[in-house]
Amino acid sequence: MNDFAARMDWCVKPFNQANHAPVAVVNGALSRTVTSGQTVTLDASGSSDPDGNALSYNWWRYLEASGYKGALAISNGAGAVASFTAPNVVSPQTIHIILEVKDAGAPNLVAYQRVVVTVNPAGTSTPPQMTSPAAGTVLSPNQTVTATGTGTNLSWSIDRTGDGLGAFKTGTGPSITFTVPADATSTQTIVITLTGSGGTLSRSYAISGAPATVPSAPRNLGRR
Fold this sequence. Notes:
Blueprint lengths: L1 H11 L18 E5 L3 E5 L11 E7 L19 E5 L7 E11 L6 E11 L8 E4 L11 E7 L4 E6 L6 E6 L2 E5 L9 E8 L2 E8 L18
Parallel strand pairs: 1-6
Antiparallel strand pairs: 2-4, 3-5, 5-6, 7-8, 8-11, 9-10, 9-12, 12-13
């Protein structure tokens, strides 16, 4: 009903006098794999509202879509950042979590996101998950980037395609910070590889800026 009322306002009011839906953003992957006992963090702090209205949050389990039907407590479910502990399971089970973001405009409008968490039994090697930068992020030369991930025994490798030099930064742990080379061009990509006990994950990122220049053939200035 509120959506219809807002659309009617859009027809007769200037943009700054009408309310518009907020943008719900979940930081990190929308599909995750964890093991029993692991803490799952749900972060919507990147959400925004085009009208600058205050936002309220609600995280809840979509029980009908979830494979796991047992008890589940979401801590700080009314906050921008919530969490829950992956329950004990004897076989892989899915939990569907819905993020509901409501603005304080008139009429109130709501946006949604869904996070699907697969819970594996304890002792299972969980594939590493890269939580940032998000897939599709475009990087810039000289930009400082922090990549974060989850999993066990994590190691990182950062490579630039096209230079033939291999990884220009490596590290271990849940995060790594690197700087995109100053001479990187839009014809190249940055490849971030994350390796953990459960496997290896690689993700490529485009680079903004001008393409590499190709020297033109020298002109023959000799006398004919």
